[in-house]
Amino acid sequence: MINIKNILISILLCTIGLFSSEYKEIRIDSVAVDIGQSKDDIDIYRLGLRRDFESKWLESRVGYLSGYYELSLNYWRDVEDKSVGIALSPVFRYSFYGSIPVYIEAGIGISLFNSTVIGKHNMSSAFLFEDRAGIGVKFEDFDISFDYLHYSNAGIKKPNEGIDIFKLSLSHKI
Description:
Shape: elongated
Distance between the termini: 36 Å
């Protein structure tokens, strides 16, 4: 069981990326709702708050690199187990110019869950890394993406039975 001190420290760490030295306040740029499933039938539900990097790098005729921070609340459920967690991930996005605004994205973040076992997976640690890669399309203030996520403790503790997730995400700029 995770103690209150660890939860408070994790929440504090997750909110650091949402603070701006320029604005001195929390600013959310978009909200994301995700639904997915692991390859062994664990249902995944996520609610994410995003903040744009506000920068463009490597801009060319093809597109540009940018990104966002995402703070998410995660709910995993299978037939016998449930797990709730929070995650913070910086995500880098390469957006292509064109009539259909397609993008690819990838990121590595951290997460903390209330359980170390979900379904057949013994994660051994409540602290996990979140790796992600995805492809999406932007429509005005909406984004739709299909993403692959992998959660594991990166060998910090054994066994390290990671979990692979495929999810669909809908986000809206606010």
